Amino acid sequence: MEAIYRSNGLMFWNHEEIKLREFFINHFAERIEFVLWRENPAWKMVRIEAPLLTPSNLLNPNYTQDDVFWQNNQGMDEGTYSLSLRPETTPGSYIYAQHLLHTQSGHKPPLCVWQAGKSFRRERDQVQKNMRLKEFWQQEFQCIYIADTMNDYYKAVLEPMRSILSMALGYPLEKSRVVESDRLPSYSQITMDVEIDNGDKWMEICSISRRTDFPEKLVFQGKNGNIEKDALVLEIAIGLDRCLYCYNCRTQ
Prior knowledge:
27% of the residues lie in helices and 30% in strands. The chain is of the alpha+beta class.
């Protein structure tokens, strides 16, 4: 990992780091699928790739022009033809999940749509050890389920994610922790972070949220017609660049 450009927060990654990132992507997906299936074998996992350029009106209003790289510095009020470099993969995953739920493909909740790819934010320049990058890799799982389910999927994944991340990065379990996030977005009922003690600082490498902002209700066929149910989303957001950074801190 090297910052060769003069502009801060833009990293170059070498061949070995790219291979390790690809290993993390596949490993985390397999382990999360196992954790969800253990709670409910009905979970369906769907991997997609959405465009990096996203219609600005689809972005969560928590993001402002100070946070996001807008097309021609235009904001959300410019309508659907204004584009931005996505600050997170969520909008594309939500749109695709709606597409799956509306087609005759047999997809229904519980459904997990996930992506691994780049996101972009207007971060202020900081030293490299803080890993506040303007262009960064995320792996985000949007796990959509019925709000009134008896399964507490959120609670079920917290400690397993801590263990999965610690083992993959080569840290003992006592070098990791699950803590309440220092920020609670308006769309989240609760957000907890998984942090790693990389020898320099406790670094957040994963956030786990229970989101309430899925754009529509879930519809099921009942005996007397359609039944609508509220949706919740278990979001598991992993910072792949931070995983690589913590791995490198341990091995260097």
